[in-house]
Amino acid sequence: MNKSNITRYWIYLVIAWTIHNLEETLTMSKWYASNTTKLPITDYISVSTIQQIFPVSMIIVTLLLFLIPILAIYRKWDNRILGIVLGAYLVNAIQHFLTAIVSCGYSPGVITALIINLPLSVFLIRQVFKNNLLKNFTWVNIFVYGAVLLIIALAVVWSLTMLIYYAFV
User: Fold this and answer.
1) 87-135, pLDDT tens digit by residue?
2) Are the C-beta atoms of residues 119 and 43 closer than 8 Å to each other?
3) What are the two backbone dihedrals, phi and then psi, of residue 77, each rounded to the nearest 5 degrees?
4) Where are the domains of the chain?
């Protein structure tokens, strides 16, 4: 497996993640407004505030996501970084699906999670294993490390959202 294939995997991820974040950004305000009675956070953050700050934080996070592949490719990081990011991508897709089930309806990001994220992450994980790019790594490693990375990423999104909120309110 040559470097161009790894680069291609990263490009697929960045494009898909950007589309996914776009869906979340475009649908979060309406979803948040219609679910305010179900969410404990609405005592602290108003719908209009979410409408203003969530898109900004998602833009920042999406731009930060562009740095990971750039660093991974040009710094020649270990392919396990790709595996961990793919794991986070897979766990994120599952999380969106479960959120939609629990809420008995649409959840921001669920459409792209099911149509793009889930199949792409499974396909790419299978490819990296097929091409022996993840030595001493298993599906369990990918899933567990991916879940940890996703929790960290969600904490970053939340922190950025709160930072923007307090900076401008």
Assistant:
1) 999 999 999 999 888 878 898 999 999 999 999 999 999 998 998 888 8
2) no
3) -65, 160
4) 3-18+46-168
